[in-house]
Design brief:
The protein is about 25% helix and about 20% strand. Helix 4 packs across helix 5. An eight-stranded parallel sheet has the order 7-6-5-4-1-10-9-8, with helices on both faces. A seven-stranded antiparallel sheet has the order 11-12-17-14-15-16-13, covered by helices on one side. It has a two-stranded antiparallel sheet with strand order 2-3. By secondary structure, it is an alpha/beta fold. Strand 2 and strand 3 form a beta hairpin. The site of 4-nitrophenyl 6-deoxy-alpha-L-galactopyranoside (JFZ) has 11 residues, from helix 1 and strand 8. 4-nitrophenyl 6-deoxy-alpha-L-galactopyranoside binds next to helix 1 and strand 8.
């Protein structure tokens, strides 16, 4: 039995990355059955909620994710040994095993909370920094897979009140960000590695069933506790919902989602909370989204707008390749630059999605110095280009190699990442379009730009072209936005004579 447990531990440890891959979201369109199947545990909310909370969600544009917990103490290494080449990413370090892992590692980890005392933690400073970056919402880890709760939960002793720090961290974060006008969503992992009542497989025996029922009740208690303690929150961001145990509890999870929504009108829940009775996650058996927005875009982006089927979505992104919690050492790996992140932000916005950048503060409550720098750089950019980022949506203009289009009413924005060598930005407009560019300017400095139609007249081309001339004296090393006012009108095309062939 002991050997089995050991093997299981090893297996879980080593296969976590593989397991994640098996989970990996492909972004492919969900297959729909020919005839709609009647489901008892399908979606609870309509496909495209039109209430105020959801309308605001669509306007957010940029978000901040924060992964913080006990794993911030090791910071992805222990006694000088980096876990980076092992199985575990930063916040997964508890699952470290194999020859590189310290002896009794899980035991060491499970006692680290006795040292958790972040003397520099200042939620107001974090919130101020997030606001300066331009974040309109934030997602905060209340409890990750290690089960440690950053709020003083009544339902499990392994929580912040048992650390030398003692004070409620979730409350400070919710209050400080809300005061800055940033909406707060709470990250919550269902899966718990060290909870004796948690099961990976679907419960079979009466003992297992009794245990898992206790676990489900505990989860419900904690979620209701969070809603009661922090009524300002706008939504939950669920994780760790992929195990067969949770999937088998679809009747319970359906009722729980209903309960949470009744207690908290307007609550936003993504597609990673529960599955239907056929164990379909994210999308149900009929291909309908389960939850209010598609929550599968983790460190990846949709290939195009059409593939999203009009669903709301957000993308959450790490700065290092993977690793959400604090990593002491950023050397030897590619870490995304503010330019990379701004590019992904605008790519997301051009497909009507939100983009959420993750930060992992250290054990004292400080961001990595590089994270401080990235926040500042993104902030400098979002300040100047706010109009093109917030409260905008996908534009029907043809995709462009210069950058990404976003749109609000009659105004279209082109964020240019690739500046043409001849300084002529050529916009393709369908010859049958009923709206055409009428006035263009540089968003930064509000400088009017020359616009002319260039109907280059290639046979079989459905488009005509509008040229925007960039002044040679306009120099920048960052992406910039061309603001295009569209006007009702039809396109004039030059046609001289068709050749006889
Ligand atoms: C999960 C966590 O395991 C991870 O530690 C982090 O908190 C992240 C935000 O969420 O990781 C996942 C979950 C789902 C997928 C990928 C990574 N997925 O569906 O592709």
């Amino acid at each position: 039995m002991k050997k089995l447990m050991l093997n299981l531990g090893l297996l879980i440890g080593l296969c976590l990355s593989t397991a994640m891959q098996a989970q990996a979201w492909t972004g492919e369109k969900q297959e729909k059955p020919k005839e709609k199947v009647v489901l008892k545990y399908g979606p609870i909310t309509p496909a495209h909620r039109t209430d105020e909370a959801m309308q605001k969600f669509r306007e957010y544009g940029l978000g901040q994710f924060i992964h913080w917990g006990i794993y911030a103490i090791p910071g992805n290494e222990w006694n000088g040994v980096s876990a980076r080449k092992g199985a575990a990413a930063s916040e997964w370090i508890r699952s470290w095993s194999g020859p590189t892992a310290p002896k009794d590692w899980k035991d060491i980890y499970d006692n680290l909370y006795k040292q958790f005392n972040p003397k520099d933690f200042d939620a107001k400073r974090w919130a101020k920094q997030a606001k300066d970056m331009g974040a309109k919402y934030m997602i905060f880890t209340t409890k990750h897979h290690d089960g440690f709760a950053l709020w003083p939960t009544k339902y499990w002793d392994y929580n912040i009140s048992k650390t030398p720090y003692k004070k409620d961290i979730v409350k400070q974060v919710v209050d400080a960000y809300t005061a800055e006008g940033i909406d707060v969503f709470l990250y919550f992992s269902i899966l718990e590695w060290n909870n004796p009542n948690y099961l990976y497989n679907a419960p079979q025996t009466p003992e297992e069933k009794a245990k898992f029922t206790k676990f489900l009740q505990y989860t419900e208690n904690q979620l209701l506790e969070l809603l009661k303690n922090y009524p300002q929150i706008k939504g939950f961001w669920f994780d760790g919902t992929w195990d067969a145990s949770w999937k088998s509890a679809y009747e319970f999870t359906y009722n729980l989602e209903k309960k949470l929504r009744e207690k908290h009108p307007g609550l936003i829940i993504g597609s990673r909370f529960r599955n239907d009775e056929n164990l379909k996650r994210h999308f149900d058996t009929n291909g309908e989204l389960l939850g209010d927005y598609e929550q599968g875009w983790e460190r990846k982006l949709p290939k195009n707008y059409e593939s999203l089927n009009g669903n709301d979505w957000d993308c959450v992104m790490t700065i290092p390749p993977n690793g959400w919690g604090y990593m002491k050492d950023w050397s030897g790996i590619y870490t995304k630059t503010s330019d990379d992140l701004i590019e992904m932000l605008m790519r997301s916005r051009s497909m009507s999605g939100n983009f959420v950048v993750n930060f992992g503060p250290d054990g004292q409550g400080n961001f990595h110095p590089e994270e401080d720098k990235i926040m500042k750089e993104i902030g400098a950019w979002t300040k100047v280009n706010a109009e093109a980022i917030y409260n905008v949506e996908h534009s029907p203009l043809s995709l462009s190699d210069y950058g990404y289009f976003t749109k609000k009413g009659n105004t279209t924005y082109l964020t240019v990442f690739n500046r043409p060598v001849n300084n002529i930005v050529r916009l393709a407009v369908d010859k049958k379009a009923t709206e055409v560019p009428a006035y263009v300017s540089l968003l930064s400095g509000n400088r009017k730009l020359e616009l002319k139609q260039s109907d280059i007249g290639i046979d079989l081309d459905k488009n005509t072209y509008y040229d925007v001339i960039l002044p040679k004296d306009f120099q920048t090393d960052k992406a910039f936005v061309i603001k295009i006012e569209m006007q009702q009108g039809t396109v004039k095309t030059d046609k001289l004579m068709d050749a006889k062939m």
